[in-house]
Structures are given as structure tokens and as C-alpha cells.
Amino acid sequence: MRSCQFSSTTIRHQLVIPRAVAPGLAWLTGALFFWLATPGSVHAYEDQQTIGVGAGYAYTISDTAPASGARLELSASAGLSLAWTARARLSYALHPDADPLHVGMAAVELLYIVDVLEFVSITRP
User: Fold this and answer.
1) Residue 31 lies in a domain
2) What is the tally of structural domains in the chain?
3) Segments forming the whole domain that contains residue 57
4) pLDDT at 38
5) Coil, strand or helix: which one is 110?
């Protein structure tokens, strides 16, 4: 009777780091870990930059175009001062049908930021 033996072979790749590079790589890894582990700082509105991505539902009122669709949006903003922010937006909506409707939009906005809003009653007793 013959016996068959199967053996598995493990392929290993060995990473060799030159001695001259090792201290710099260790320092860089430590600095990256420290940077990722520390909390972020707080900035006022004029120091903030934002990037946004959005998705949503698109609806159109038309007798010929499909009513329901999907919308994607990209936006970026930069604070100009304590009260003003500039924002750019790109938006795309698709209303699928046999004859699909494609809607695109590009916008640049100037926003006034209201930090505290208080309504005061002016009634007399």
C-alpha cells in the first residue's frame, strides 16, 4: 500500500531595513503615533476649513420628467472672519427613467454666521 504525504509550504517575505535608516524610521513612526494620538486644537470660525460630502433624495415637479431621483453633493468652505465664511458647492442629481434627467449645479456662497441669537420681548406691563 502506498501512502501520500502532502506538505504545506509557507512563503515568507523578509523586510530588511538598513541600519542607517532604522533610527529615522523609528523616530518617524513615533512622531506619527504622537500626532495621531493628541487631540485636535480648537479654532475660531476664521481659522476653519471644511470639506463635506452629501447624498440625498431629489424630487422634481414635472409631467414629463421622472419625479424621484438621487443627489450627490461636494462642498468646501473657508472662514474669512468671525462672522463670514465662503463656501463652494457642486451638486449632481439623477432622475432615472427611459429618458433620464440629469441636473448639475455649481454654487459659490458667502455665509454670515450667527453665533448667539436672543429674542427680547418689548411688551409693556
Assistant:
1) yes
2) 1
3) 22-112
4) 74
5) strand
Separation of alpha carbons 37 and 41, rounded Å = 12
CA separation for the pair 108, 85 (Å, rounded): 11
Beta bridge partners of 56: 71
Is there a contact between 48 and 79 (Cβ–Cβ < 8 Å)? yes
How far apart, in Å, are the Cα atoms of 98 and each of 64, 80, 81, 93, 95?
11, 46, 48, 16, 10
74 is a domain residue:
yes
| DSSP for 10-22, written as a single string | ---------TTTH
What order do you get walking across the sheet with 101-112 strand by strand?
49-59, 68-79, 84-95, 101-112
**Dihedral angle computed from the Cα positions of residues 101, 102, 107 and 111, in that order, rounded to the nearest 10 degrees:** 60
C-alpha cell read off for 42:
480648537
Q: C-alpha grid cell for residue 110?
A: 458667502
CA distance 58 to 69: 5
The verdict on residue 3 lying in a domain is no
Per-residue pLDDT tens over the stretch 15-60: 556 666 667 777 888 888 777 777 766 666 667 788 999 999 988 8
Q: Is 77 among the domain residues? A: yes
